[in-house]
Amino acid sequence: MGPHSSIYLGRLAPSPTGHLHLGHARTFALAADRARAAGGRLLLRIDDLDTARCRPEFAAAALDDLAWLGLAWEQPILTQSLRLPLYRAALARLHAARLIFPCHRSRKDLASALSAPHEPNPAPDEPELPDEPELPDEPELPDEPELPAS
Question: Which of 30, 33, 51, 87 could form a disulfide with 145 if both were Cys (CB 3.0 to 4.6 A apart)?
Answer without folding.
Answer: 51
